[in-house]
Amino acid sequence: MARLIPLMVLALGCANDPDTKTGSDTVDSTPATAADVDFDPATMPRMSDARLLTRISLDLRGVRPTPAELDRLAADPDQLDVLVDEFVADPRFGDRVMEMWSEVYLTRSDLFGLQAADFDLDNEATFARAVGEEPLRILGRVAAEDMPWTELVLGDWTMADEQLAAAWNLDYEGPGWAPARYTDGRPAAGILATNGMWWRYTTTGSNMNRKRANQISRILTCNDYLVHPIQFDRDLDLLDQDAVDNAVQNDPACVACHVSLDPLAAYLFGFWTVNTESWLDASIYHPEREQLWVDTLETPPAWYGEAGSGLGGLGAQIASDPRFVSCAVQQAFEGLLRRSSTVDDQGALTVHREAFLAGELRISALLKSVVHDPRYRAGDSADARVDAHGGVPTKLVTADLLASQIEGLTGFRWRYADYDMLQSDIVGLRTLAGGADGRTVVQSAHSPNATIVLVQKRLAELAAVYAVEHALAGEDSALFIVDLTAVPSDEDSAAQIQHLHRAVFGRNVDTDGDEVLANSELWDALYALDGSPEAAWAGVLVALLRDPDLLLY
């Protein structure tokens, strides 16, 4: 099958006629203008059922719907809600929540201050990945097991794999990613008590945990101090620590933020590291350092004016703050719509907040509410109401979604040694695929670019070869229904191409339609090169996997 690879370059584009695709159907296309005063979001044009099911399946499970699921919906439109319930109960739902919030937490990173070698571990790639995913895995378990969202800041457990268990003081049974508990006496505070969070967000002697405090505020209440406008005396010497300390305590422009930021930072001295190069110092919690705020910040712990004590107390204060709930709603809305919320969205956010509360703060209830939002279900981009009122007729897949949907279709995951090529940048192609690395790139791409298309091309080639090779080895394949080693009849070829369109795109195409004709001509051209039916089928699959519909949904 090695000869399949050179033929992949011949499938330079999708042999499908974009003007004949049925996936752009919408229920309504009545024109409207941005000046609609009494606009009802329910009148916004909606995607076709098949496209909507594809969007929901990708967002909640990371894979495209199966032909059987599409058939269920075609036979009974009321099955959509049933399928949504099944999607949030799917084992992959937790992973999708983790991936969605990864752009909020930004803890995924290829590099940390301490390396695997510091713990006598030899796999830097997987160790760094595990460190950054620790807090995100907590989110994933909270979602997968339908726990209240408050467990994020109240839980007395964390998540770990074999590498974290070997590096840190953990009570861990495994195997793989499994619940664990620190054994160093740290308070129960969910993600606030994880090494992964504070290895990612370090502090300096002069910063005194303020950076960390801002991340708590940004991530859990959507209040980022760094975006607040500040006007202070330009004559202030920022290199004079005494002058800076005096300004923080007395300059009104500084006090406006530091009056709440510094008391929040005061909770975090249990994670204060004296020797930043010491693996032991950085790996354990230090209760004996909790009172360092007395001589450094000179302000006691408090949460927005409410006095507190200990990291566990901070978690309880956050869990009872209404902003914690509202922030989760905003993040879910923006994560699913892939855009920032605006003042015009406040009514929708209120509706979704009520659904979240009614669902006892289960993230499944919140995401189910958002996927019912007319803005999320918008279809026709030519309708003025869609753009004018925040609808999202088309979204670009993230690097995570590109990888998971290809894996779902073909079984192929692009790995090199211990690196997942779409989840790493040291060796992999994560940012080139439009992903975020948590440090230099903090948001996934929202529109296609040259490198994304090139990554898709190479991924399509590798995945198509993999799928054909494994089908030839006798493994079950949802993609192929013909003998790949034989020259098919015209009828069998048309049926196979029709089946591929159904499996890959969720679309029905006619056996005598333009798509089938174009793909048949491509198969003939590839077969003519060296008489290999299996190579020709791999080339056809490459063309389909390079279709823009695999990027835009």
What does it look like?
The N terminus is likely disordered. It is globular, with a radius of gyration of 26 Å. Helix 11 crosses helix 12, helix 21 packs across helix 22 and helix 21 runs parallel beside helix 23. By secondary structure, it is mainly alpha-helical. The chain has a three-stranded antiparallel sheet. Strands 4-5 form a two-stranded antiparallel ribbon. It starts with a helix and ends in an 8-residue tail after the last helix.
State Rg: 26 Å
Low-confidence stretches: 1-35
State mean pLDDT (0 to 100 scale): 90
> What is the number of E strands?
7
Helix content: 40-55%
State the distance separating the first and last CA atoms: 32 Å
Q: What is the SS-derived class? A: mainly alpha
Strand order of the main beta sheet, please? 1-3-2
Question: Major beta sheet, specifics?
Answer: 3 strands, antiparallel
Report the portion of residues in β strands: under 5%
Give the helix tally: 23
Order of helix and strand elements from N to C terminus: HHHHHHHEHEEHHHHHEEHHHHHHEEHHHH
Global outline: globular
Give a quick rundown of the structure.
This protein has 553 residues and is mainly alpha-helical.
